[in-house]
Amino acid sequence: MAFRLWASKTSSYLRISVPHRGFASVAKDLKYADSHEWVKVDGTSATIGITDHAQDHLGDIVYVELPEVGAAVKQGSSFGAVESVKATSDINSPVSGKIIDVNAELSSSPGLVNGSPYNDGWIIKVELSDAGEVSNLMDADKYSKFCEEEDSSH
Amino acid sequence: MRGGGLWQLGQSITRRLSQTDKKSITRRCFASEADLKKTVLYDFHVAHGGKMVPFAGWSMPIQYKDSIMDSTLNCRENGSLFDVSHMCGLSLKGKNSIAFLEKLVIGDIAGLAPGTGTLSVLTNEKGGAIDDTVITKVTDDHIYLVVNAGCRDKDLDHIEGHMKAFKAKGGDVGWHIHDERSLLALQGPLAAPVLQHLTKDDLSKMYFGEFHILDINGAECFLTRTGYTGEDGFEISVPSEHAVDLAKALLEKSEGKIRLTGLGARDSLRLEAGLCLYGNDMEQHVTPIEAGLTWAVGKRRRSEGGFLGADVILKQIADGPAIRRVGFFSSGPPPRGHSEIVDDQGSALGEVTSGGFSPCLKKNIAMGYLKSGSHKAGTKVKIVIRGKSYEGVVTKMPFVPTKYYKPT
Fold first, then answer.
1. Minimum Cα–Cα distance from A88: chain B residue
2. Do residue B65 and residue A1 have CB atoms under 8 angstroms apart?
3. Residue A52 clears pLDDT 60, i.e. is over it
4. How many Å apart are CA A3 and CA A17, to the nearest integer?
5. Helix/strand/coil (H, E, C) string of B335-358?
6. Smaller CB count within 10 Å for chain A: N or C?
């Protein structure tokens, strides 16, 4: 699979841990929501995307519905959607705040979410309204276990 | 249930991605997975990386290691092998089989040459579609038909009820449900050359819609030159004890070019070919005329009637139906079932019944129902997705040209 190849090649550069049993990769410095979005906090702003596990389950992403800059997002609430060949999935915000940037590249190249879920495939940037919310999220190890459990239960 | 619609299935999988009430979901999956039926190819699918999902009461592969996009493209370029053993094959036998079946379907079955078949529709008293089915006249006293897995129980109840009444009046008809057989669909440009390696019969003389009983890879098979992808290809009904060997032989003879393909790509392929998925694009309350299958009502049936709902259906043929199934191209996110279709003023025109991103055309395609009058190709419409309107245009189907093997 093309993606697996990508994951193993770039894992050292991105410091992505690639578990031996072929589970999707996670990035160590990110926080994760149980609805499979990641957030990278940098001071008072945060970058948000969907995880490798999520893009792998969705398959080829053909459209990303982006919100408007300036709109408010709330932790756990939907702000957009990703469409794969197979299905639609809402994207929930892992944190609350105001949208300060959206990844317009995704309009013409939605496949960036598959190829580079933690970098070029980022979706929105948010000005945090409550930095304390981040503590409700999972770290990389916990999220990896969460995905393993979820996969083995169906 | 809605006929095991694939789109619902896809949604149920990905909704889990944003599912927070995890415990209840897990419990539900365990309960249902234990009840799911497995085809004889189940272990073969798992061994080949099949992602198994519940579909119409069966555990079926939605995809294998290839993405749905790649699988769809490979079917049209090389070929696909699908396990469609969840579908229900049955034979009607007896000298009045045709007279009996013609009471339940719109097709001219008597008029079929022996060894040929056609797509047809089982109708109810109101002219609505109970199911779509491929019907083959094997001989004058043997009919073979295949119905949808999700409709199996209601179809068999329906047929059985009418059969009892028919037999009570002295009609000679009986049935056999082919649960001892498995069904493989081999589709794409390599289907015929690959299958030719495994049989002595000359497949170049077998055309679209034709049916043979023949030896394939050492087993007696029912072979129909048909499919659900728009490509040339076959459906092979094989005794279940030979199904895994046949699947292996077909893959091997193709030298890896024909790939195992799941329900996900099957849905993209049939949508590109403009074919209905029962439960999405055709339902109990929709007539075959509304669904664009007027061609399937045989000429003799139009003058004679004599099938359930004939009064409604023949009137719709004469006057034109109030709604019609049409195709669309659209911008924005791919339309899915139940997306509303409106005009420039926002007035309702109809609804999308299935849609998605076409892997071959690299754009959105959909089908749905529109009020007659707004159904002509080129008509501009708006398709409403999550509260926003996107541009759509009514388009002729199939979206991707079909490549059925017909005499030149």
1. B11
2. yes
3. yes
4. 15
5. CCCCCEEECCCCCEEEEEEEEEEE
6. N
Residue B299 is assigned to a structural domain of this protein: no
Q: How far apart, in whole angstroms, are the C-alpha atoms of residue B27 and residue B34?
A: 11
Q: Does B5 reach chain A within 8 Å, measured CB to CB?
A: no
Instruction: State the total domains in chain B.
Output: 2
Contacts of A27 (CB under 8 A, 6+ apart): A14, A15, A16, A38, A118, A140
DSSP string, B143-184: EEEEE-GGGHHHHHHHHHHHHHHHHHTT---EEEE-TTEEEE
Residue B220 among known ligand-binding residues: no
What CA–CA distance (Å, rounded) separates A112 from A123? 10
Q: What is the CATH number of the domain that holds B11?
A: 3.30.1360.120
Residues B351-360 pLDDT 10s:
999 999 999 9
Tell me the pairing of strands B211-216 and B340-342: unpaired
**Domains of chain A, earliest start first:** 2-152 (2.40.50.100)
Per-residue pLDDT band for B6 (boundaries 50, 70, 90) equals very low
Distance CA B215, CA B222 (A): 9
Q: What is the 3-state secondary structure (H, E, C) of A14-77?
A: HCEECCCCCCCCEECCCEECCCCEEEEEECCEEEEEECHHHHHHHCCEEEEECCCCCCEECECC
Closest chain A C-alpha to B317 CA, distance in angstroms: 36
Quickly state the pLDDT bin for B263 (edges 50, 70, 90).
very high
Range of the domain at B201: 6-85+180-272
Radius of gyration (Cα) for chain A, nearest Å?
14
pLDDT of residue A27: 81
Partner A contacted by B268 (CB < 8 A):
yes
Using the beta-carbon criterion (under 8 Å), do B359 and A150 form an inter-chain contact?
A: no
| Selected residue of A5, A86, A152 to mutate for chain B interface (largest B Cβ count, 10 A) | A86
Q: Could you tell me if B372 and B245 lie in one domain?
A: no
Say which of B19, B332, B356 has its CB closest to residue A85.
Answer: B356
ipTM over 0.95: no
Give the nearest partner residue to A89 out of B18, B65, B264, using CB atoms: B18
Residue of A nearest to B266 (CA): A86
Minimal C-alpha gap between A64 and chain B (Å):
8
Please tell me which residue of chain A has the smallest CA distance to B262.
Answer: A86
Answer whether B15 sits within 8 Å of A89, measured CB to CB: yes
Domain holding B398: CATH number? Answer: 2.40.30.110
Residue B358 touches chain A, beta carbons under 8 Å: no
With vertex at residue B330, the alpha carbon angle to CA B329 and CA B333, rounded to the nearest 5 degrees, is: 135
Closest CA of chain B from A79, distance in Å? 12
What's the pLDDT band for A87 if we cut at 50, 70, 90?
confident
Whose CA is closest to B398, among B243, B253, B268, B296?
B268
Identity at B199, one-letter amino acid code: T
More confident residue, B3 or B253: B253
- Type of residue numbered A17: S
Residue B9 pLDDT grade (very low, low, confident, very high; cuts 50, 70, 90):
very low
B285 CA: distance to closest CA in chain A (Å): 26
